[in-house]
């Protein structure tokens, strides 16, 4: 079942920081270049659409997950990002780091 939910960017970044959003082990590592990250921010600044994020919400999250950013979160992620990991990691890294 799919449903569309709108979030403010600040809420998504806070949920990453709190450990509520994580990555399934099947996701590739972060591979975007600085140029690609800069282009993402440029597109956002210009008001261009930058795509959707697709999350898998599961109360019984499997053990094969990892965190976005520094891995010091104490909880297991409630939502796993299935599509948009490169964009979301870029946003988190630039804004929070």
UniProtKB/TrEMBL annotation:
Ranges of residues in domain GmrSD restriction endonucleases N-terminal: 9-97
InterPro entries membership: GmrSD_N
Origin superkingdom: Bacteria
Matches recorded under PANTHER family: DUF262 DOMAIN-CONTAINING PROTEIN, VNG6097C
The name this protein goes by in its record: DUF262 domain-containing protein
């Amino acid at each position: 079942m799919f449903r569309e939910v709108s979030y403010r960017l600040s809420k998504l970044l806070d949920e990453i920081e709190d450990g509520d959003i994580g990555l399934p082990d099947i996701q590739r590592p972060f591979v975007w270049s600085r140029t690609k990250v800069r282009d993402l921010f440029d597109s956002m600044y210009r008001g261009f659409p930058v795509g959707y994020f697709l999350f898998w919400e599961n109360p019984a999250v499997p053990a094969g997950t990892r965190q976005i950013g520094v891995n010091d979160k104490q909880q297991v992620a409630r939502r796993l990002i299935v599509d948009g990991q490169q964009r979301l990691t870029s946003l988190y890294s630039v804004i929070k780091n």
